[in-house]
Write a structure and sequence with these properties.
With 103 residues, the protein is an all-beta fold. It has no helices and nine strands.
């Protein structure tokens, strides 16, 4: 589902080998978890849920300010405002400590 954003521009430029989208934000409320991503080269945002897929990348986990996706044998953790990086192997991903957004 594409959600057009007012004044949105296509600013997502993922690194080589990374998923072809960027994480814009996450919403976590109890068991409900949603990630908003921007597809490379396209304005607007897509809404993803755990278990969903986008361009062959399966969404395996959504947490506060992060998203983990898998494709073939690769697992990548995307964080809001950061470039993608391989997800830790052998252990489940853990969210970072809470961020105080009041500063």
């Amino acid at each position: 589902m594409l959600v057009p954003a007012a004044g949105a521009s296509a600013e997502c430029v993922p690194p080589s080998g990374a998923p072809p989208f960027c994480l814009a934000g996450t919403i976590t409320a109890g068991a409900d978890r949603v990630a908003l991503v921007e597809a490379a080269g396209s304005p607007g945002f897509l809404k993803l849920h755990e278990g969903g897929t986008l361009n062959g990348w399966a969404v395996t986990e959504i947490g506060r300010r992060y998203l983990i996706v898998e494709h073939d044998d690769s697992s990548v953790r995307l964080e809001v405002g950061a470039t993608s990086q391989p997800a830790p192997s052998g252990a489940p991903a853990r969210p970072r400590p809470p961020v105080n957004d009041d500063d």
